[in-house]
Design brief:
This protein is mostly beta strands. It has 4 helices and 18 strands. The chain is elongated, with a radius of gyration of 22 Å.
């Protein structure tokens, strides 16, 4: 199955996106986790086609005021092809072979450089991951606590959301890309080892670099891993249970080796996608119906 992904961002700094770094071990906006929202990024014209392919758009505005650069990404079973164009002219393309872990950079149809993914991205499993040890011991609730309450004005009653959760962590991806590396190479490397159609969509703001002529101008160095909070949720109103559900809130922690900073980025909510406020009001309404 072929997946075609175009990405667009109106950011001056480089914003690479990894929504998929964390799929496979499976928001905390609601749960209170510190979150850095992604700034200056706009995903437009995202379309899921009948054959399972996904089409969207990514535009990068270089730091020096150059015209925007468009990146087209085509993901297939064994290869990822990234094509960078500016003013309709192809700047370069990166062709990644997932089987061999090699990336070929082409200009004007000629191979000018060859890279190994393992030289830039390393993966450490959760089981052997000392980086996550401090995270493993925090934020786990074995008994249900009040998480949220919301008023349903239509029936004049409150709904109270209670829940308990456990926390899991995904593998850690350590990234190193030197000054002058083509953005096409970075996208090709990441998209080839991470799972999902939005592969280049969510995290590297915290590790970001400015871009001039399709190349990063400062080192990208750091690591990132996902946190999965698995919630068991229950909404009560007037002493009765009105709704029971499950939800997993996925965030990523990004550690920037260059600056020494760390940040949390909200990725997505799995399972029941309704907001906690909505769950409260719906649960209250369900109890109202029970009492009729």
């Amino acid at each position: 199955m072929k997946r075609i992904v175009k990405f667009i961002t109106a950011a001056l700094p480089l914003v690479l996106i990894f929504n998929l770094i964390f799929v496979g071990t499976s928001s905390a906006k609601d749960s209170g986790t510190e979150v850095n929202d992604i700034q200056n990024f706009t995903l437009e014209n995202q379309t899921l086609l009948s054959d399972g392919s996904e089409v969207s758009t990514f535009q990068l505005n270089p730091e020096n005021g150059e015209s925007p650069i468009i990146y087209d990404v085509t993901e297939e079973k064994d290869t990822v092809t990234v094509i960078a164009t500016q003013n309709g002219v192809e700047l370069d393309r990166a062709i990644t072979d997932k089987r061999t872990g090699t990336i070929k950079q082409l200009k004007n149809g000629v191979v000018v450089e060859e890279y190994k993914i393992e030289d830039h991205v390393t993966i450490k499993s959760t089981e052997s991951n000392s980086i996550n040890e401090n995270e493993q011991s925090i934020q786990s609730a074995q008994s249900q606590n009040l998480l949220r309450s919301a008023y349903n004005s239509g029936i004049g009653q409150y709904g109270y959301l209670y829940g308990d959760f456990t926390t899991r962590y995904g593998d850690t991806y350590t990234l190193n890309f030197s000054v002058g590396t083509s953005v096409s190479i970075i996208v090709g490397a990441l998209a080839s080892i991470l799972t999902g159609t939005a592969v280049v969509l969510a995290i590297i703001t915290a590790l970001g670099s400015t871009v001039v002529a399709n190349a990063i101008t400062s080192l990208i160095s750091g690591d990132v891993f996902a946190q999965f909070k698995d919630y068991n949720l229950e909404v009560r109103s007037q002493g009765k249970v009105g709704l029971v559900s499950k939800q997993t809130i996925v965030n990523a922690k990004v550690n920037n080796y260059r600056t020494g900073g760390s940040s949390w980025v909200y990725l997505r909510t799995e399972g029941d996608g309704r907001s906690w406020d909505d769950l409260c009001t719906i649960g209250a309404y369900n109890v109202y119906l029970q009492n009729l």
